[in-house]
Amino acid sequence: AQTVTQSQPEMSVQEAETVTLSCTYDTSESNYYLFWYKQPPSRQMILVIRQEAYKQQNATENRFSVNFQKAAKSFSLKISDSQLGDTAMYFCAFMKVGSEKLVFGKGTKLTVNP
Amino acid sequence: NAGVTQTPKFQVLKTGQSMTLQCAQDMNHNSMYWYRQDPGMGLRLIYYSASEGTTDKGEVPNGYNVSRLNKREFSLRLESAAPSQTSVYFCASSWAKGSTNSPLHFGNGTRLTVT
Fold this sequence. Notes:
heterodimer, A: mainly beta, six-stranded mixed sheet, four-stranded antiparallel sheet, 12 strands, 0% helix, globular, B: mainly beta, seven-stranded mixed sheet
């Protein structure tokens, strides 16, 4: 079974600074996908960024980028130029290719301070 | 487009009562899912439906039943609610299974309290 671990229950960052959220996972699969979801206080789950395991190039989406280390089974999220609207819970998630099941980590609560 | 719509947004039940959570999506997605979110636990899959007419158990199916009424709608039923089912429930949908090109789209959740 796959597991996803987010070792930082809470983090804070000053507005305009950069913050990195950690995620590690355990799997015996070679083909899989990784995701970061954001859950603001409104409760809605929003996809932030996604990565295919077969791609060596790290995914980027505007101010969000990942550091994907397949051998180390690590998938960290970097948020640059943090904004107050980035305050949210962030969930790392794993999905095996062809599977219906998205496995989530327990989340990291990020607070961006003015 | 409304995306994924869940009703109700909030519900309080007494132990032993039954209720159905409704979910509908207007994106013509094939797959639909029910997750529950508990503090410190992340989201856990209850049931999913890969296509109209099929349903399968997820990680935590006990105490729940589901119905894929048609392609748009996927309901979750609690036959006899228990305090352990106090949680926030999310419905989600995707076009196809297991792909980054088909990420999950989530509804806004239902906060259920069982007393």
